[in-house]
Amino acid sequence: MAQLSVDEQHRISWHSETDVVRYRRPPGAVPVTVASDGAYLSERLLPLDEAIRIALQHSEVIRVLTGTSATSSGRTIYDTAISTTAIDQAVSRFDPVFSANSNWRKTETPGARIDPGDPLAALIAGTQIGGNDASAKLSQTNRLGGVGNLAFGNNWSYNRPSALPRANEPSVELSYTQPLLAGSGRAANEASIVIAGFERDRSYFQFKDSMQELIRGVITAYWSLVEARTQLWAREKQVEQAKAAFDRVEAQFRAELVDIGDVAQPKLAYANFRANLVTAKGNVIQREAALRNLLGLPPEDGERLVPSTPPTRDRLEFDWAELVRTAQVRRPDLIELNLVLLADQQRLVQANNQSRPSLDAVAIQRWNGISGRMLNGGTLSSGLDDNPSWTLGVNFEVPLSLRNARATVRSRELLIAKDRANIQQGLHATEHTLATTVRNLDQFYAQYEAFRETREAALTNLVVQFAEVRNGRVIFLNVLQAITDWGNSVSSEASALTQYNSSLASLERETGTILDTHGVVFTEERFAAVGPAGEHFAKDCYPQSLQPSASTDRYKDSGKASEETFGLEDFSQNRKPSVPKKSAPLRSPDPEEQTPEVPGGVSRNLFRAILFRRFLD
After folding, report:
1. Inter-residue contact 410 to 348 (CB < 8 Å)
2. DSSP 378-441
3. Which long-range contacts (CB under 8 A, 24 or more apart) does 317-324 make?
4. Overall pTM surpassing 0.90 (yes/no)
5. Pairing relation of β-strands 61-66 and 69-76?
6. Residues 549-606 pLDDT 10s
């Protein structure tokens, strides 16, 4: 009882933190904030192709973009290799099994008998039985469900008193049991192997889906950083313009040319623009941090990431029917739904098989022998062929209601109906998602062209308003509105164009082709694992992981910051207003004419061929 009391848990205890925490990493540099002095930081031009390659190099655990941050998707490069082991486990059911045992035994049984010398007396005379039971057995289950056994045995025993005090009883037994109803047939017995293969495929396509989301997230985070840096430039210029206006009015106030009321409005505007500049700086820091997280880089390494790939300004046209067909064939999530259906169909095969009555045919052939030494010292033996025996028969068993088996079959049939419904819903949702992405593409491109004209008009208006306020013909409120309109137009143009480029990546993601268009494939690495027989099979290779290869070059590298492609010239207040040119009407480009470039520096026709036709072969 004392020992039992010691083993009981009378209090809560736990391991200390130092015992549990096994892995640590040194802290990196202090993160940059809006209050940091970034003058000491160097800039690193980062093309989009290089950003994708860095993300692939650090993709042991797949990360996905979540707003202004990145989180783990829960997928790793090892998942598919882990699921592959289930196939071997399922096949192992049909591996031959060898077993051997040897047991020594001894039994002494006391007993009473009449004393031969005195009929009224009794003697205690016991019996001794002992010996060794040894056997070896080889059995295997075949793909039809039958079980074959080959057994060798020998019972060496001594029995006192006995006609043969010591004897050997060798035997050989060959048996085979074949299910005729439940448990019979290749389809039912191999279903577990097929299911394991489908589960392996599911793991692969889940991993591929997360990799596609990683590539899309990197592209989206990249263009978001371009947008944020462009907006920061616009806010900086707004602050410069507001400060110049405020300094002019303040100088006039000191010269007693204006009163305090004329100073209050420019001062308030200058303060608001400075507050907006802080917000823009924080947005750039957050967008860069999200990109760093996705790329697997530390939060801070003393360098600022400066995107150098210019966003495409070409309007791409797509064939709707081909988009839908491509997505239905290549989207990993739709493929996974079909794999779930196929696996459940195999489980239905198993359930139907197990719902049958159990009827097994049994055949046993046995050869028995015996040899030993008699009481007179002579030997006695009988060969294995002298005493054969055999058994033929059938065993039948069935639950009278089959309730459990029928319920299992009904459950599998309903699951298959559910799987089909999920596939139809997946196809329905995919078409709606594609439609939304196509609408977004046209909307963002139209907004970009509209905001581009708006920016030109806002810049002209800003120069005019500054000239008018210097001549005293307008109030400062007009200048404030002009500065605000110009900054908003720059931000809106950058937002529309970068969202258009992000939507191009989203369209490839929705069609399941984003890995192919970026030249990303999976390389299965292998390592020598110890097999079931030890070092003899050490050269056999078992899958370890799926490593993504480096992407191929697709995007341009301008060699300068991407935001400079928006024509962010350092304008002056003394700039003469330009006469607005009559803009050409917006039109869809002719599909047959040669366009300059698409994101990868590929012609539109080649891009469409890569994106759609190549993948249907």
Report:
1. no
2. -EEEEEEEEEEEEEEEEEEE--SS-HHHHHHHHHHHHHHHHHHHHHHHHHHHHHHHHHHHHHHH
3. 317/588, 317/589, 317/591, 317/604, 318/438, 318/507, 318/608, 318/612, 319/608, 319/612, 320/438, 322/612, 322/613, 323/434, 323/438, 323/507, 323/511, 323/612, 324/430, 324/431, 324/434
4. no
5. antiparallel
6. 777 888 988 899 998 888 766 554 444 444 434 333 333 334 333 333 333 333 333 3
For residues 165 and 373, the answer to whether their CB atoms sit within 8 Å is yes
The Cα 51–Cα 63 span in angstroms is 14
Instruction: Report the SS3 class of residue 530.
Output: coil
Reply yes or no: is the peptide bond before residue 161 cis, omega within 30 of 0. yes
The torsion angles phi and psi of 491, rounded to 5 degrees, stand at: -65, -40
Q: Rounded distance, CA 314 to CA 229, Å?
A: 22
Q: DSSP string of 294-321?
A: HHT--S-SSEEEEE-PPPP-PPP---HH
Largest CA distance in the chain: 153
In this prediction, residue 4 has a pLDDT band, given cuts at 50, 70 and 90, of low
CA distance 243 to 270: 6
Look up residue 110 and give its DSSP letter.
-
380/266 Cα distance (integer angstroms): 125
